[in-house]
């Protein structure tokens, strides 16, 4: 019987499990879910300690906004080494989301700005409600992205759009974000969690090797030179097709017992 219900309420993060899906809710609405040292540590700890039966994670924000980014009140004077280590701490957390155990779906509403956009960019699928908007106010604050934004955001929306956001303070609404490539699914206000859980259910039924290949092999293949990428792809394909889950699924299809590809 899979665990269901609230697993833990840390100071700033609520963790709920429903079957194979874990729901992490940033729970600092009074500060618009701004990420301070405590919250980044709690997010990281949650991802490093996913229950063994969890097959997908949904991340959302409590209140009117997904996340206002770095808690600027903690952006105190740091020497260069301390500032680098602070940024590297965010990198570790967001790397463990992107290259973790299971796919992660972000539900975006209200402000998705600065470090909030960096968090969203480290997830695998982004569901945006009508109210969502995307910004990188670092440019206006005289700072730079430090949570992996310069690596992940251009890979979603392109370098030119990110330059525009940082240099001019340009903000994209949900539709613009979708057209730019930052949004996987666009839904009405209030419909984001249902959509995310429906997607998570589909993901939870995939063969585990599929999640592994898509999360760990695909992004690396994309970064490889084509001839290496093609070779890595062949290795990954051979490994995946030799798993018992793949053999069962292929046999089920050939026996007419598996779903066909249908237009949605
Ligand atoms: C905060 C933060 C924050 C809100 N750090 N305290 N991020 C930003 O530059 C975005 C800054 N925030 C905003 O532009 C707005 O707060 C929002 C558009 C997100 C929301 O506006 P609103 O009108 O709903 O809320 P508010 O009244 O501005 O904020 C409510 C409270 O949250 C208020 O505190 P209070 O004690 O006066 O009630 C705000 O000060 C507080 N608050 N956002 C600290 N970010 C790893 S590098 C990443 C670098 C970055 O992310 S830089 C971008 C930072």
UniProtKB/TrEMBL annotation:
CDD domains: crotonase-like. InterPro entries: ClpP/crotonase-like_dom_sf, Enoyl-CoA_hydra/iso, Enoyl-CoA_hydra_C. GO terms for biological process: fatty acid beta-oxidation. The keyword Hydrolase does not apply. Keywords: Lyase. GO terms for molecular function: lyase activity. Pfam families: ECH_1 (PF00378). Belongs to the enoyl-CoA hydratase/isomerase family. This is Crotonase/enoyl-CoA hydratase family protein. It comes from Ideonella livida.
